[in-house]
């Protein structure tokens, strides 16, 4: 399995929404991470942002990303980036990458 990570600037939320819609239409299950969704993972009512970043890092660990990559993504998350993560088979990873790029992701990374 491959994890594809699309990173969207905070100003590009409509582009991210379009990407999520196109991924769903193509049959991909994705997970979106921004400051609004991560609190659901923490179980806290009003967590501080540092707690959100720690929860985000824990979730990234489930994707079997390296510690260095997790720290880099956490720093971007802290600076208000939004993330779309997709786990897919090797053959379909390029399709995910194309959708994310076409929808304006500021960065797209593939992790095999």
SS content category? alpha+beta
Main sheet characteristics: 4 strands, antiparallel
Shape category: globular
Low-confidence stretches: 38-42
CATH fold annotation: Alpha-Beta Plaits
Terminal Cα span: 7 Å
- Averaged pLDDT, please? 85
CATH class value: Alpha Beta
- Sheet with the most strands: spatial strand order: 2-3-1-4
* DSSP helical segment count: 5
Radius of gyration: 13 Å
- Total strands: 4
Note the run of SSEs as H and E: EHEHHHEHE
CATH architecture: 2-Layer Sandwich
Name the helicity range.
40-55%
**Percent in strands:** 15-25%
Number of domains: 1
What distinguishing features does this structure have?
112 residues, alpha+beta, Alpha-Beta Plaits, four-stranded antiparallel beta sheet, 47% helix, globular
SSE map:
Blueprint: E1 2-8, H1 13-25, E2 30-33, H2 38-42, H3 49-61, H4 67-78, E3 82-88, H5 93-102, E4 107-111
Antiparallel strand pairs: 1-3, 1-4, 2-3
Describe this structure in words.
- It is built from five helices and four strands.
- The protein has 112 residues and is of the alpha+beta class.
- The protein has a single domain (2-111), classed as 2-Layer Sandwich (Alpha-Beta Plaits).
- The chain has a four-stranded antiparallel β-sheet, with helices on one face.
- The longest helix is centred in the N-terminal third of the chain and has 13 residues, at 13-25.
């Amino acid at each position: 399995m491959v994890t594809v990570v699309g990173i969207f600037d905070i100003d590009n939320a409509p582009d991210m929404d379009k990407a999520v819609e196109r991924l769903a239409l193509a049959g991909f299950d994705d997970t979106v991470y921004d400051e609004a969704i991560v609190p659901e993972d923490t179980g806290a009512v009003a967590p501080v942002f540092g707690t959100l970043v720690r929860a985000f890092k824990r979730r990234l660990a489930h994707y079997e990303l390296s510690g260095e990559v997790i720290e880099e993504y956490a720093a971007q998350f802290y600076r208000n980036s939004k993330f779309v993560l997709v786990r897919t088979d090797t053959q379909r990873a390029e399709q995910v990458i194309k959708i994310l790029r076409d929808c304006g992701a500021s960065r797209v990374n593939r992790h095999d």
